[in-house]
DNA sequence: ACCACTAATGTACACGCGTACATTTTCGCA
DNA sequence: TGCGAAAATGTACGCGTGTACATTAGTGGT
């Protein structure tokens, strides 16, 4: 007798109304007599009725899903878990508030980008891309989205010359502040350990670094520019060379483009007899959790990752604040502020 | 003319076949003449047809989603991101391989547990719960799932007396190994900083600790048992008292139930003039990334979180290996092995 | 050439909801 | 009391697939 799950029809019968009325009551649509509403709700309650999300989505032509795409290589931790988990949290909490579910999709680097298909399959109503890198295939895939007018948003990565919706932080200012801070501590031979230029982040960091030096009459010294890949290991690998230069007094401070590289560097420097914070100032970027717990504590630049994730969702779902558009280029230019967090690794440093 | 997305009907018309044939070709169902298949595929290709996942899900009565539930408090990082991101990776990669999408759901602690509703709404076909804690409401919600025969799986948490499907690691052995290792280093006053007993993990850790002591003729000293909440801060907070006991020579080693507490403790001990690895041996648990980068490097117990996530998915989706059932209790008892990772924080230690 | 059987394809409908439109009820007001 | 308008409810159908069943085409054996 008791066959399968309860459906709208049974609720309608029990309440003595039509299916449409049940639907209207449950969706709060149209005028309903109070007594009818109560009868329907009671019937639904009594039968423990739960509408089928599948049927709803189909009827509404909306999945109710917010896609989140994360680049991923199993067991290889190129990215900071801090970085992603903060952004993801911001996305998740905000999406939930807006009544959306979060569809998480890992994307391996060699996998073909076909974001458009995701939308056309109606798996997601909107999509956020994390950790994208500049490249022709990526640009193509994103251009397609733009052209087909699918709602998407990049986080913390800009594609120069494209009008992709993006949530960014002001890394030029952040890097400027970090560099200026080091200069303020008396340093004038500031090495820069940057990440790959496929990330707009890297270009921005360099820009801020360069400007801060220029504003203080210091010229960029190509010999003390280094490149890693944002991994801890790459910081560690850069250590020997940087340690040598510190000993030769060709470097008196290091600005690392993220904390992970800074931490690898910190460890590596120490193994080469350099005491960070004493023999050379050190500052990282991201203000990850670990920065507070190293010895010496690591100066850094705090980036509102959580808020960036939340902002990306609001931009896509909520229709609160319209984007800030650059009148010249027509591009969206809002950037969340970052904040310098000076700690022991760059304070009380006396250059030789 | 070009109205909305391409549908099956148009593909059928272009290929000169019925809609059913298109469906059969695309799903690889039933016998199809090779020439027909080619015509259909070409038509689909030419029209750039993509089936509606919404309609497919509705027709199949399957969402194709694997739910993942994570306890969450915005901006409060009670849990290790390492822990979750590892498990999540294992889940994501395996689910993808099985053709499932991952529906990530944050659950705030005060939120009412209603996992059953999730299934009855057909939002997910199966579900994995992470970070659950023992408690009556949780048990009730899970019992409901069991009774309604929804496929779900817990990871790294056991509910004593319940037959919930679970993927666990052998933390009794791991803790035994950690404690025995400390004893092997010559320690016999081993403090234990455990987590809350709402986690079966904590009980298992204590069990292993206790057994290792017993097997070596050492009795448990209640005075050197401490409780934190697995956060770094709680380790830090326990530091003063533990530092005092070390100075009094009432403690010569500390086993912390996870790395985060061990790291907080490490920092705190040092601030109280105790040098971990010299004045007292220290070992953590989880073998998180940071363990390799502390000074001294932190001994720990490696837990295959990634594999646990993958195993949970296989258990739910793949039908490869049947569960290992305890013939007595009827409960599932498979536990993945863990591995002791001795490092400087507990090696070459000479007790006084 | 005929039959029996299988392969290949078509026809028809269910799935459970949202909602446009039709219909009935209610209600204010003359 | 009657009447028009608004409120409340019902009827009917579309959404795009998967698939059971009906139908037709093909094949091999006699």
Overview of this structure, please?
- By secondary structure, chain A is an alpha/beta fold.
- Chain A folds into three domains: 8-51, 434 Repressor (Amino-terminal Domain) (Orthogonal Bundle); 65-169 and 307-336, Rossmann fold (3-Layer(aba) Sandwich); 171-303 and 338-346, Response regulator (Rossmann fold), CATH 3.40.50.2300.
- The first copy, chain A, contains twelve helices and twelve strands.
- Chain A has a six-stranded parallel sheet with strand order 2-1-3-4-5-11, covered by helices on one side. Chain A has a four-stranded parallel sheet with strand order 7-6-8-9, sandwiched between helices. Chain A has a two-stranded antiparallel sheet with strand order 10-12.
- In chain A, helix 9 (200-215) links the parallel strand 6 (190-194) and strand 7 (225-227).
- The first copy, chain A, is elongated, with a radius of gyration of 26 Å.
- Mean pLDDT of chain A is 93; it is low at 326-330.
- Strand 2 (101-107) of chain A pairs antiparallel with strand 2 of chain B.
- The structure holds a DNA duplex (30 and 30 nucleotides).
């Amino acid at each position: 007798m008791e066959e399968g799950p309860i459906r709208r029809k049974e609720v309608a019968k029990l309440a003595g109304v039509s299916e449409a009325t049940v639907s209207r009551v449950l969706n709060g649509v149209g005028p309903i007599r109070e007594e009818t509403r109560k009868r329907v709700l009671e019937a639904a309650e009594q039968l423990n009725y739960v509408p089928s999300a599948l049927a709803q989505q189909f009827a509404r032509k909306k999945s109710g899903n917010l896609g989140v795409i994360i680049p991923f290589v199993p067991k290889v931790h190129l990215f900071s878990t801090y970085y992603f988990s903060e952004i993801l949290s911001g996305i998740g909490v905000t999406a939930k508030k807006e009544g959306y579910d979060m569809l998480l999709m890992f994307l391996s680097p060699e996998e073909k980008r076909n974001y458009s298909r995701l939308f056309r399959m109606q798996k997601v109503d909107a999509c956020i891309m994390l950790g994208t890198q500049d490249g022709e295939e990526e640009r193509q895939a994103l251009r397609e989205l733009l052209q087909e007018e699918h709602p998407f948003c990049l986080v913390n990565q800009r594609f120069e010359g494209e009008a992709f919706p993006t949530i960014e932080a002001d890394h030029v200012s952040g890097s400027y502040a970090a560099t200026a801070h080091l200069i303020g501590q008396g340093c004038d031979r500031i090495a820069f350990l940057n990440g790959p230029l496929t990330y707009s982040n890297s270009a921005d960091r360099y820009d801020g670094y360069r400007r801060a030096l220029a504003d203080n009459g210091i010229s960029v010294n190509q010999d003390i520019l280094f490149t890693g890949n944002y991994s801890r290991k790459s910081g560690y690998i850069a250590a020997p060379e940087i340690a040598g230069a510190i000993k030769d007094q060709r470097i008196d401070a290091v600005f690392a483009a993220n904390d992970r590289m800074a931490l690898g560097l910190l460890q590596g420097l120490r193994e080469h007899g350099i005491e960070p914070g004493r023999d050379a100032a050190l500052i990282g970027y991201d203000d990850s959790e670990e920065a507070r717990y190293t010895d010496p504590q690591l100066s850094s630049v705090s980036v509102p990752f959580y808020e960036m994730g939340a902002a990306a969702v609001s931009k896509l779902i909520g229709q609160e604040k319209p984007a800030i558009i650059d009148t010249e280029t027509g591009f969206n230019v809002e950037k969340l502020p970052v904040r310098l967090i000076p700690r022991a690794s760059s304070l009380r440093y006396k250059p030789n």
